[in-house]
């Protein structure tokens, strides 16, 4: 479902990857594919919807490991 967090095993998507589990947020669904955002890395990818797994509740309370930042060029020039 769009907007929900799931777990995604990297080898389910790319067999030659690290074999780690990642937290993903579903951005959209279309024709059996999900566009997901890796919430701890801010990267996006399209994956088969069938590869999304329910995430254990203990991992839902962890803060995301990346944040959004805005850098103003004027501030950089002043430094």
Summarize this, please?
The protein has 79 residues and is mainly beta. Helix content is 13%, strand content 37%. The protein has a 5-stranded antiparallel beta sheet.
User: What is the mean predicted local confidence, pLDDT?
Assistant: 82
Low-confidence segments: none
Give the fraction of residues assigned to helices.
Answer: 10-25%
| Structure summary, number of beta strands | 5
User: How would you spell out the order of helices and strands?
Assistant: EHEEEEH
Give the percentage of residues in beta strands.
35-45%
Major β-sheet strand ordering? 4-3-2-1-5
Give the SSE map.
Blueprint: E1 5-9, H1 10-13, E2 21-30, E3 33-38, E4 43-48, E5 52-53, H2 73-78
Antiparallel strand pairs: 1-2, 1-5, 2-3, 3-4
Fold and architecture overview:
By secondary structure, the chain is mostly beta strands. 13% of the residues lie in helices and 37% in strands. It is built from 2 helices and 5 strands, in the order βαββββα. It has a 5-stranded antiparallel β-sheet. The longest helix is centred in the last third of the chain and has 6 residues. It is globular and about 45 Å long. It starts with a strand and ends with a helix.
Summarize this structure as a short list of keywords or feature phrases.
mainly beta
């Amino acid at each position: 479902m769009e907007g929900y967090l799931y777990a995604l095993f990297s080898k389910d998507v790319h067999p030659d990857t690290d074999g780690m589990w990642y937290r993903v947020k579903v951005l959209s669904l279309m024709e059996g594919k999900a566009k997901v955002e890796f919430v701890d890395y801010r990267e996006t990818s399209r994956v088969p919807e069938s590869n999304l797994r329910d995430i254990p509740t203990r991992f839902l309370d962890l803060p995301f490991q990346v944040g959004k930042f805005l850098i103003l060029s004027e501030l950089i020039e002043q430094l």
